Amino acid sequence: MTSIPLIGEAVAVAAEPRLAGAKIGVVTFPGTLDDRDAARAVRLAGATAVPLWHGDSELGDVDAVIIPGGFSYGDYLRAGAISRFAPLMSKIIDAANSEAKLPVLGICNGFQILTESHLLPGSMIKNDHLKFICRDQTLRVENANTAWTVDYTDGQEIIVPLKNQDGQYIADEKTLDALEAEGRVVFRYVGFNPNGSRRDIAGISNAAGNVVGLMPHPEHAVEAGFGPESLDGAPRDTDGLGFFTSVLTKIVGGDK
Asked: Which keywords accompany this UniProt record (predicted)?
């Protein structure tokens, strides 16, 4: 019988020494829920998680930034709309658009913040069924050449948890056509569209591929024994880890 590791004992991957110096910033806003989970995912991937506060005036020397999920500012006005004006967001926007192209990952509420910041096109509205949904969700990797997906393969299917109320991705047809044509649809829902997102889109990137946003939560599928299963009961508990190892691969110069 296979024993399930205790919390804190599981090691998802053997961290490579060359990755140990990488620093990944994890931003916390009032209402952020998953910052500690994102930080743990970073550590399991082999890097150092650097806590960042929304009111900070500087990013410091981080190599990438994660904007985690939650309900920043209670999702008042529109989800992510207030967070867009946080002092740290102006630094993130500048760094992401700079020649250095800082890698930025927005998860759930983080994805909403990225659209409100115009780092990614489109917008997020309430789920088409007008209810909060929480489930394990199958995704297909449509673009394995972004800063956050190079450790996956095109067409690969992964299972990660999803939990949202304002998760319906929308954009005008011209924008959707451009995203498709330019390969900027990074993830698509498979088998079930949980929120009515246009064209089953679960995640997108900017043109350079350094900024990625998605609604499901890869940080909740990074540790053996604690995560989703496939329909046949096979463990899929580390399917989300590739996000965090991918950016480290990019940072150390291991681009595909």
From this structure: ATP-binding, Cytoplasm, Glutamine amidotransferase, Hydrolase, Ligase, Nucleotide-binding, Purine biosynthesis
